[in-house]
Amino acid sequence: MSVPADFYLTLSAVMFTIGAVGLLVRRNVLVMFMCVELMLNAANLAFITFARELNDVGGQIAVFFVLVVAAAEVVVGLGIIVAIFRRRVGATADDVHVLKG
Amino acid sequence: MTPHLLAATLPDGLTFAIAGVIALVGSLGVVLSRNPVHSALMLIMSLFGVAVLFVEQDAQFLAAVQVIVYAGAIVVLFLFVIMLLGVDRSEAIATEPMPAQRLMAVGLGILALVEIALLSRERWPLGAHSVAGKARGTGHSNVYVLGRSLFTTYLLPFEVTSALLVIAVIGAIVLARRPRTSAGPTEGEAAAAEAGGGPLVDAGELVGSGAPSAERRVEAEEALARAGDRIGEPVGEQEGLTVVRRPEQ
Amino acid sequence: MLHAAFLIPLFPLVGFAVLVVGGRRLGNPLAGWLATAMVGLSFVTTVVVFAGLFERAPGRRSFTQTWWNWFSVDRLHVSAGVLVDPLSMTMALFVTGVSTLIHLYSIGYMEHDEQFPKFFLYLNLFVSSMLLLVLGGNFVMTFLGWEGVGVCSYFLIAFWFDRPSAASAGKKAMIFNRIGDAGFLLAMFLIYERTGSLQYQTVFARLGHVGGDSLVAIALLLFLGATGKSAQLPLYPWLADAMEGPTPVSALIHAATMVTAGVYLMCRISPILHLAPDAGHVIAIIGGATAFVGATIACAQTDIKKILAYSTISQLGYMFMAAGVGAYVAAIFLMLTHAFYKALLFLGAGSVIHAMNDEQNTKVMGGLRALMPITGGTFLVAWLAIGGVPPFAGFWSKGDVLLNAWGYSPALYVLGALTAVLTAYYLGRCYMLVFSGKARWVEARATGDGTSRGHAEPALEADTSNPNVPHERIAAPAGPASHGRLHPHDPGWVMTVPLVVLAFCSVFGGLINLPFHPSFVFLERWLNPVVGRALFNPHLGAGSEIIFAVIDAVLALFGVALAYSLWRTAVYRREVEPTFLERAWFIDWSYDRLLARNSTRMAAFTSAVVESRVIDGAVNGFAVLWRRSGTVLRRVQTGYVRNYALGIMAGLVVLLAWVASRTFS
Predict the structure, then answer these.
(1) Is the ipTM of this complex over 0.85?
(2) Under 8 Å CB-to-CB from C415, ≥6 apart: which residues?
(3) CB of A15 within 8 Å of any CB in chain B?
């Protein structure tokens, strides 16, 4: 008998929170991006867990699409980061605050 | 009934424990590493842990994709960008310019966790089973089941994601190109580039793409004002940027 | 022939349209001739339609022409169209006739005016509106014309708008008319509410279902409209100030046509008045009072046009008195004859003013009779006509009114008779001051080092101290009058022809409705299908009628003799020109003090306090509120993407909390 789903889900929730807090705390744009990936992964884990628990392959399909979209997101996001920070000394998100009110 | 880890068989339990710890440590490592390269490596570690948990839950294909796409492609892309922008650019992780940010972030994180924990004690009505089909007990492999569902029921979303990927690739190319908006450098800019050596920026561009700082922009504009009508000639230099006045369109 | 009725208001309207587009190009005098021709064509058409109507049997003399459905709201259907019946045709005939003459006269009078085409443009629009007013087949059409003449009246009074006095006189006319128009509008609402229609014939057919109180209210509200338009107490002061307009305008609008609209309206709604005798009492009393008050004021004025203006007010009071006692035929009869001799008086006054280089003060005229024989002669005719000297037109029409007043109440008759004496007297005074005696203007011009005002001091003092006419032209420079010697003479034929024609009508106008024998009362028989017989028939025999006629004649001659004896040689007689009368019973003065100044003060208050503090304050307050809140709230926009993410996180926490609260409750 395998591990009950609750443990997976708890693990997923903890990972998600770590990613979220990391996003809020870190200033390096790249690290923030990695935190987003962590959050996505936590969600993926939850999806897979539900797929097993409910014996439904739909959860895995969702993860598949999340992976694809995450890949696309990383490509575009990193493109933007490169475009913005190519000429800057610092690479922190706080350096870009042109929209300050 | 409280679910218990000991309810599982020993291999399963051990696998979950080890992989879970790896994933958690990797996650914490991403957030806590000072150096972004270390963060990236920690991310790989976390992804590997999650991949193991995927296998543990009969999602072999996705585990493989996780390793290949995430760890193999995406994180490599991250490292590539880190190297491109300069490894030495690190943040002062000990200091926080916004005083309440860190406190509130941790507080909100804990709150969210507590709420999730509270909610997870409930059993939720989940409605009808989806049309995707059973994951196990079909007599076919995970890849077969997943592929069948993907290319029949989810064919249209699948095609749409392929379009999305193409768009992302094109977008990345457009974004990463050098920002030459016009057909090419004007004669003046070319001359200025030869004379000054630095990249060409004009005041408008500085404003448009997010100026490094307001002071620099003001300096650039003052330089432009001093330049008067000398269109195309280098009018000033700040921090390696040659400022020229663009000819009127 | 009756189907040509739509052409009657159309011709002047076409003239108006042409002058709007090409008036400047046509220029002086072509624009004037065009306008005159259009009104003349309208007159001819009216004659043709009139003849067509005349051929019909008396019972069938009513013809409704509907042009199109103007607008429909719920059950209310208002059509654009005309009602051709003896009353409207009588009005149309004299409106177009007198208007044609006045147009002709204006070509000469306005010869040197720079705005010559514009003047005729307004005149044509005015005539068109007036014809819509009298021909309109329902209350709304009449109201359209009513407002049209009101607007034209404003334009024409303020024609020389660069004079502050003219501009404010125009505004005054507008405001007084608006007060009356409010009554008209309310009456229309009430009529529609009670009868479900605004078409004259439908309304009159349904009057039986309307309660008596409602009828009185309708009649009095319409009378309020009429007091505004026809310058009755208490809304009369605008007419005196309206003399700021060019003299032909005074003749056309403020004597002959527009101001009679109120009387016409009273005759038009005679079926309502029949059923609401209480309203009739009010109308008769106000009419009589206005007649008397106007006549007394006219006795003490020095400005020639003011005398005529107050005379008009007085005569209109007579007409309302007649309408109030139910003698609609007498009212119309007096209106017709009055149109002739009052237009004649005004045109004669215009001729004099022209000859005196825009001088209007009668005290500095005199002796013009010999120099201007045609003007003087026709003015004399008009005087005798309005004074009621037999056999001129005024004798018959005024006699008719007085006879009916006697049938209603002897007190009203006495008031009317007194007014008749005064009428003969004050116009005699005017005539004597202008045309006989010594030529005072010669001395004035010769000795007054270029200004004409030197010898008129006493009169001028009285005038300048008169708040009744605060914007009069007394203080204005004498203008063209100040240079050169005067050579008064009769004007050219375009101006004298109308004078002669009108004088002819003033002499023989009474023939259309002679008393004494039933076969002579043409007008009464003609109008009978519309207005019915007089309400209060005195039932006098022919003998009594002759006695009354003799009394009238004696009264008129007494007034004439009085004027002659008092003013043949004298110029100033303070004892018969009391300040009280000269300042118009202080009525206008009290309006000024009570209403105008207080409302000006209130307007100043609202502009200073309500406008600038409350309204502006509210607007600025909101602006400040938003700016301050913006200043505070802009800090939310830190520009740091992490901060925004924090917001998202907080949102997530709140959302989860909400879900949790739903789950555990």
Answers:
(1) yes
(2) C288, C289, C291, C292, C405
(3) yes
